[in-house]
Amino acid sequence: MSDPVEPDEATVRRSDLSGPPPSASPAAPTQAAPTQAAPSPASPTPASPAPPALVEEEATVSRSSLKVRPAQDQPSRRRASGATATGGSRWRSLLGLRQSDDTQEVRRNDLRKDGQPSPSTGGRSTRLRPELPTITLPRVQIPAAITQTGARLVDLTGERIKPLAERSAPVWRPVARALGWVSPLGWTVLVLGLVSWWFAGRYGWTELAMIAAACLVLFLACVALAIGHAKVEIRTDVDPTRVVVGEPATGRIEVRNLSGRGMLPLLVELPVGRSAARFTLPSLGSGKSHEELFVVPTERRGVIQVGPATTVHGDPLGLVRRTMEWTERTELFVHPLTTSLEPLGAGLLRDLEGQVTPDLSMSDLAFHALREYQPGDDRRYIHWRSSAKHDRLLVRQFLDTRRSHLAVVVDTTPEVYTGEDAAVELAISCAASLAVRSILDEQDTTVVVGDQQISRATAPLTLDTFARAAVGPTDVFGSASDGAALAPDASVAILVTGSHRPFIQVQRALAQFEVEVIKVALVIDPDAQVGVRHAGGLTILTVRELGDLRRVLFSGALA
Question: Basic and acidic residues composition bias: which ranges (predicted)?
Fold first, then answer.
């Protein structure tokens, strides 16, 4: 039912706005005796009662000035007289939504003394729209008994199927291998032929029958071409197996026909790094061989995988492709660029187990020769027997000895270098130059570069480690810890890093080594000035290119 139409100029008392008492009838007349309405709970209690005339004057308000919205525009409206909810209120009551009484009243403060709405409300009621309830759906949980039962079934099934699969492997493995010969294009042609055959047999379409016959005949012919087996012997050689970046490296592949009859042209594939070389061999008679040469690209440092050589049997269209491997995989090491350096001469001086150096000394560890006495020489070193023979004082002269162990740690994080990957390669080249010079000086050498580590090895094996190193984020602290563990007796520790690595991190990384170890930070910075400086107990070498390393070491920075 809709609300009864009432005159626009009908009066509404304040008691009607605040709601009738429970005993009031919904159909009570609007023109009742003027009585003083009880104060609303939301409004403040006046200090003194107002005169009856004033109260009665303020108690009436024009209905037209309230601008009541229709029910369809205001679903939460309830009749001011407290009657049964109609329109939108009826639907709200059916949905079980409740609305607070505080939001259903026209507040007294919103009405001015003249009966007009307050300007702050804009002529509209201050009723608040109720919020819809939040519905939370329960999460579906599978009982633990079901999951445990399923896991047990899978385990039991796997334990029972695995022995059966191993016993039947001679049967299903050749079938699986044969199915792997077919390419996606081949499966498409086969499915198209079978579908066309089925439709042609069901609906009698001659065109589909011709398509089916063509597809199936083509597929069978391609399978027949791939079934053949070639009896050949393939050899692959790469010479040399270790080169420096930019040096040429060539390879050779030789194919010999071992069968008693001639061999049709054969396709041979040889993977070389990320690419693959393909050779189409001519027809070979029985016992004949054919040789092909190929060039291995060596523009970048790394390890290039060559092989295995495979023969490809199949059709020219690529529907069926069968490959057979004939050789093993060969590794070609591309070493980083290095520069020749002067002997480092770094280590712990005057060690009984150390290596003899060309430096003359008055230490009594390694005797070198006799010389004439000079003022200031220690008299303990006078060789009296030789002095008596030559009728002059002779003293013994010695050579310094050093126990040297060089530990090199390379930071391969591209973000800490100016130039990123190219600068990382320069850092690896500098570290490789130091390691090679240390090995040539017959010193122990430990290298930690990225995820690769090696200690006390020959120069080729050490350079192989540099070739295997990958460029990527590196934990400098962890790498230095590994270097200190591999070289507990290190005499010199060098950390090769970039200019963007904070100095505190470099200092903490080198602090993993013992106190008496000479700690050096080699910084790669193409924009800085080449030089040597000391800070925080470290010797900092700055280089811009590989040739600068010889200059900074000539000053004796590692001594």
Answer: 99-115
335-372 residue pLDDT tens: 999 999 988 765 443 343 444 444 445 454 444 567 88
Q: Indicate the SS3 state at residue 249.
A: strand
pLDDT in tens, 379-390: 777 878 888 888
**Model confidence at 147, in pLDDT bands (50, 70, 90)?**
confident
Our separate counts of H helices and E strands in the chain read: 13, 23
Return the closest-CA partner of residue 181 out of 212, 222, 234, 213.
222
φ, ψ of residue 195 in degrees (nearest 5): -65, -40
Predicted pLDDT of residue 260: 82
SS3 (DSSP) at 204 = coil
Q: What is the 3-state secondary structure (H, E, C) of 468-486?
A: HCCCCCCCHHHHHHHHHHH
pTM exceeding 0.70: no
pLDDT band at 400 (very low <50, low <70, confident <90, very high): low
> Are the CB atoms for 267 and 280 separated by under 8 Å?
yes
Q: Across the strands, what pairs with 266?
A: 281
| Site of tokens 């089916």 | 212
Beta-carbon count within 10 A of 192 CB: 16
3-state SS class at 94 = helix
The helix/strand/coil state of 167 is helix
Which has the closest alpha carbon to 129: 92, 79, 90? 92
Q: What's the burial of 173, exposed, middle or buried (CB within 10 Å: 0-12/13-18/19+)? A: exposed
Q: Would you call the peptide bond into 163 cis, given omega within 30 degrees of 0 as the criterion?
A: no
Rounded distance between C-alpha atoms, residue 521 and residue 490, angstroms: 15
Structure tokens at 332: 């070609």
- Whether 278 and 267 have beta carbons less than 8 Å apart is answered as yes
The mean pLDDT value of the chain amounts to: 75
Q: How far is CA 55 from CA 24, 39, 50, 107, in A?
A: 22, 11, 6, 16
Question: Across-strand partners of 333?
Answer: 242, 303
Pairing of strands 249-257, 232-239: antiparallel
